Amino acid sequence: MLDKNNIPKHVAIIMDGNGRWARRRGLARSIGHHAGIKRIREIVKNASELGIKIITIFAFSTENWQRPGSEVNMLMRAFSNFLNKEIGELHKNNFRFRVIGRSEPLLPEIISKIREAQKLTAANTGLTVVLALNYGGRAEIVDAAKRFAQSACSGKYKPSQLDEKLFSDFLYDPSLPEPDLLIRTSGELRISNFLLWELAYTEFYFTEKYWPDFTKDDLVKAIGDYQKRQRRFGEV
Question: Which domain holds residue 134?
Answer without folding.
Answer: 4-214
